[in-house]
Amino acid sequence: MCGIAFAIPNDAGFVEQALQSQASRGPDDHQVADVGLCTLGVNRLAITDLEHGSQPLRSRDGRTVLVFNGAIYNSGDLIDRYGLDVINGNDGEVVHGLYERFGSEFPGYLEGMFSICLVDVGANEVILAIDSIGIKPLYVVTQGTTVFGASTPESFPVDMKCDVRRFPPGVVWSSRTGFRRYALRAYREGPVVPLLSASVREQLPHEVAWGCLLSGGVDSALIAALAKREYRGDVITITCGTEDSEDRKSAAEIAAIIGTKHCERIVSRAEILDAVRPVVRATQSFEPWTIMGGVGTYLACSEAAAQGLKVLLSGEGADELFGGYDEFLDISGFALNAMLAQYQVDLGTSECLRLDRCSMAHSIEARVPFLCTSVVKKSRMIPVESNVSRSADGVIVKKALREAAGAVLPNAFAFRQKQEFSVGSGVGEVLTEYADSRYSSSDVMSVQNKFAGFAVTTPTQAWFLELWGEETGLAYGGDLQDLTRRGLFRQAVGEYSAHVVDPAVYGESIYG
Q1: Average model confidence (pLDDT) for the chain?
Q2: Are residues 237 and 96 in the same domain?
Q3: Coil, helix or strand for 149?
Q4: Within this chain, do residues 217 and 146 fall inside the same structural domain, yes or no?
């Protein structure tokens, strides 16, 4: 929904500079305000209450002021349940009343994706919080009693780069009391498909044009089919791929079956190669699967923007919840439980990072219905042998989800063999062939020597790492290995790196 920035104590210069560097996250409005001991700033991507919902959001009595990035899907329910007083229709308005009622436990009542900076003017206190998965990012730099924050790591000036830390998911921070984990309370019980259908229904925007990313696999197909069920008008689906890609063909077939208005972005080799550097810049990553998948996402979102869409629903998260990766084929029991848990912990720095940065680069908000609290909780209750099923006929990954999807989709699509997005779209093949033609074995070794301490064994790794160095590290100056080790890509803050999931919601078997 937005890009945010803040500084404690007041520093309008930092906030202005940070917002300029992330302008694509919110082209509809730009505001900077000094509020008590803190400067708040926001670039707004207007999705709810387009006319009156500008940020920062102020409570009626002026006691609390906040900026937030993301979307709160249960705002209407919270208003009715607790009789909350709201000034406008911006979904973030509910935070004021929840904070007044529940204090720093307020994030646990929110269903959605969010990063929030709230100032309690009366108490001279600042509260930071993000969702339990880390779908919407927040980065911070602490220098003594001074704290700077922004939605992207590139928002910080050169002299702060080594100190950038990712704010930990599922945690709330107070300028008076420090870090603590909040309890998750916003969830329902029920079967997978009804829970997912409710999540899709809550996430459909009412004021702006929207669509669904559709790869043709079960995850995105299920989201698109449920969106079509929940919405009476035309549902737009967006697919990106090369002329001969399997995803493009499969997506066209499923779009015809469920009845969406389907848009294809058939991409050339040149378009794919031209997108690599912008994706490295947007993701601030050199990880091969992030970049390969990111190129497809970036190009698909470019098409969505050309169609006038502001919101896209996506199937990200299903593989991590229900065991959809090839890595799970030879793992079972407790080890599989542990691997699923780790994949979920890493979502904020893997799939959600790729999706957020590559969609926001085109001023589009990507929403992930699979990652609502209720669906995640339900996935934790499914025995691992039902997710990754083994029989004499072989192994079926994501079996429980596929069986549930069979009530909505034809079996041929519910059980379509999993392909990485970069593979199914044809993007990965183009990128790999290009890297192989450009980097000889001696070139790869040269990059390895240049970036001592980094694992560089393939031409693709060498190419992406060199681009990353040009776009990020080398621009910062100093030693790249030391820069990374000291925190540019640090996954969390201190001891909070592991507990992004509340056992009471997501299952004691993993964390007990």
Answers
A1: 89
A2: no
A3: strand
A4: no
pLDDT score of 280 more than 50: yes
Cα angle: 454, vertex 460, 462; to 5 degrees: 40
Please list, residue by residue across 4-34, b when 16 or more beta carbons sit within 10 angstroms of its beta carbon and e when fewer do.
bbbbbebbeebbebbbebbebbbeeebbbbe
Best CA proximity match to 127, nearest among 189, 185, 63: 63
At residue 509, does pLDDT exceed 80?
no
Number of domains in the chain: 2
| CATH number of the domain encompassing residue 90 | 3.60.20.10
Residues 351 and 298 in one domain: yes
The domain of 26 spans: 2-181
Do 429 and 435 touch, CB atoms closer than 8 A? no
**From CA 127, how far away is CA 121, in angstroms rounded?**
11
Q: Is the pLDDT of residue 495 over 60?
A: no
Both 264 and 157 in a single domain? no
Q: Which of 181, 216, 247 is the last residue of a domain?
A: 181
- As a whole number of angstroms, the distance between CA 19 and CA 432 comes to 35
Q: Are residues 336 and 290 in the same domain?
A: yes
- CATH code of the domain covering residue 209: 3.40.50.620
342 and 230 in a common domain = yes
pLDDT band (50, 70, 90) for residue 165: confident
Please give the pLDDT value at position 41.
Answer: 98
Q: Are residues 253 and 350 in the same domain?
A: yes
Secondary structure (DSSP) of 218-283? HHHHHHHHHHHHH-SS--EEEEEE-TT-HHHHHHHHHHHHHT-EEEEEE--HHHHHHHHHHHHHHH
Q: What is the pLDDT of residues 20-41, one digit of tens each?
A: 999 999 999 999 999 989 999 9
CA distances from 397 to 23, 220, 245, 381, 417 (A): 40, 16, 22, 17, 9
User: 29-75 pLDDT, tens per residue?
Assistant: 999 999 989 999 999 999 999 999 999 999 999 999 999 999 999 99
Query: How many whole angstroms separate alpha carbon 208 and alpha carbon 128?
Result: 28
Q: Please report, for residues 428, 445, 460, the alpha-carbon distance to residue 437 in angstroms, rounded to integers and kept in the order given.
A: 14, 15, 10
pLDDT in tens, 374-414: 999 999 999 989 999 988 788 899 999 999 999 999 998 99
Q: Are residues 92 and 152 in the same domain?
A: yes
- Model pLDDT, residue 5: 98
Please give the structure tokens belonging to residue 37: 């001991």
The answer to whether residue 450 sits within a structural domain is: no
> Which residues are CB-contacts of 203 (< 8 A; sequence separation ≥ 6)?
71, 73, 313, 367, 369, 372
